């Protein structure tokens, strides 16, 4: 019987690699590393997600935001840091030693624009408008046999974020609520795309991923991020599936009435992490999940019970091989003279150090190549202590 | 359709309607220029005034709160209240659906599609979103008509002031709550600034992120904008009408402020208005807007020379929009025959309905399609509005969605349409491959689906 994929492959003449032979991925020890990058768009308030009640300046500096909100608990992480009560699944992972917090972290960018800060977070380069390609794209392209990007990496949620953008297309998957078209018509349409250099390869890639998550789209969840998480897990556990996935979560720009809003969002994010942990169980030791945002927010509450755009914030790294149960931070302190421009948490760690550590120590990439091609920065340090051994 | 006509109808217009070719005849450029001139009538889809919807929402919430207090623990009253709440939510949903359909059909039917595209462009430049803002759910389309559409024959600065003073924008970017910390009300209530609107005015609406401003400039503009708010029952004693713009002096941060090197003396609402008027003609604003317009009409990465020329017109005319829009039509690069701009989902769907001359009557179906394609109007993910590039809209998943939609839609609707004649008229003469593929289709439904799904139809 002809599957739809077969029909389309017959119809399109571009070369196409079936599935991902683990290209670089499985090394001599038989490791087959997975990476999920979750972009939190809007600027998560790092001091709300991971407060620092052990800092003697905390209560005075945060003012009305020192309390996370009525009936919202705080987990204790260590003498200095707590964890927002909405992040229950994060806390379980932290206690199991599978989740590390990186605090006072930011991309190398200080001007507080969402969109430029996201560009730096995703391009991995100092100049926001310097690149139309993402750091993860360039890292994957640099792998031996890095041609088959559409079967190596996957954007969940529809659009391809900058971090995975480049001259060639990676795979993409979105929850789909439209009826399937009949195979013959699709094959004819696919032929029309043969000569379109931009769209042809994209349509091809789309139909190939379809087979891998067959049935998933039918199971409806109202939460697109949950659906994406379930799909990501299916892809990453599939024997021929991609090993890299990127997800996006929006709505962290809490200018007004922050406590209630943020609590709901963090709970939702926590459930997503729970889903990933559960459905990636068989490959958990080979999996790393990185969650990062473009910037933190003002330390003090603004005039409307929220917070405005700031600089230093928080990131999370989870996975079986992560040295979890610790907050990695060169803590600058919250006293007024320690704040960046007197208002924001001073960043002491470049978020790209996390990315670089993951590329080198988890994906096993070459340091010289990463310095040259990915971050264009030979002085970018690794983040010590993130991985076991 | 001839090549120049095809470009006029697609790159500048909203897709080729049967009447477009007749109207433009041998002069596609003239057809476009006519649309930039003031129109006898272009009101937009008729909706209640924004202040009405905002006031209605506010009073409905107040009534509900009062009823909740009144109900106490009475289970009957609570059940009654819940029914009323559900009815209210259903009614709001019905209103937004009807507006989505109305705006869409207005674009499908308009005899001035270039003008309509410009309204959509500027509306996206000054994007507002219903997400998380229940106060403005029913009034976003009114905002577009009141603040943007009415400004198409004037200067950019007038549109800017109208937008920033519009209740929908003041709600959307939180300025309604921003209070000068040293103002009378600020001191009494211990509330303060919210710099959201001020930052986005600088970054997104005027000089752009490279416009050379600092955090101090953001704070200065935020201070000047304190007191720009929306009338409600509490503000009545300041002469506020419910749902309308009002300047409340006791919320306004006193003093003069320095923005981009210029000092603005304390002068009530005039202070921010003067600052906005200056921002609107700032050279960086001209450059930023010219590059956005060029990206929309020429290419994702437009030639620098074209951007320069458009910016020059903007500067020379102090941002006179019709002059800037004429400059776009005169830009040779905008007429290049290659496929350069990938249609956004909304553009795509409007162009499908326009080309086929069909009317959508089922609002829920339209809303579902737009939602699935991630392009429901007034739902942009951020104040930046929707992106304008193939890199954003043309992902594999999105393209597949669109192809599947086209095939299903073509199949369903073909029986009502003269497919062969439509295909002859709509497919550009030089697209010979597509023409012969359509002739080989096994049914009119298949042919129509293929045409709408074809790459030719995805570009403008």
What does this structure look like?
The complex is a heterodimer of chains A (389) and B (460). Chain A has one domain (4-14, 34-334, 345-374): Alkaline Phosphatase, subunit A (3-Layer(aba) Sandwich). Chain A has helices spanning 4-11, 46-49, 58-62, 88-95, 114-123, 135-141, 149-152, 183-192, 199-212, 224-237, 258-279, 351-362, 367-374, and strands spanning 34-40, 74-76, 82-84, 99-106, 153-156, 171-173, 244-249, 287-293, 313-318, 326-328, 349-350. Chain A is of the alpha/beta class. In chain A, helix 1 packs antiparallel against helix 9 (199-212). Chain A is built from 13 helices and 11 strands. In chain A, strands 1, 4, 5, 6, 7, 8, 9, 10 and 11 form a 9-stranded mixed sheet that branches. In chain A, strands 2-3 form a two-stranded antiparallel sheet. In chain A, a hairpin with a 5-residue loop joins strand 2 and strand 3 (82-84). Residues 1-28 of chain A have low confidence and may be disordered. In chain A, 32% of the residues lie in helices and 13% in strands. Chain B is mainly alpha-helical and 460 residues long. Chain B has a domain at 170-280. In chain B, 59% of the residues lie in helices and 3% in strands. Chain B contains 24 helices and 4 strands. Chain B has a two-stranded antiparallel ribbon. A two-stranded antiparallel ribbon of chain B has the order 3-4. In chain B, strand 3 and strand 4 (262-264) form a beta hairpin. In chain B, helix 15 (304-316) packs antiparallel against helix 16. The mean pLDDT of chain B is 93. Classes of the chains: A alpha/beta (389), B mainly alpha (460). At the A-B interface, helix 5, strand 6, helix 8 and helix 9 of A face helix 11, helix 18, helix 19, helix 20 and helix 22 of B.
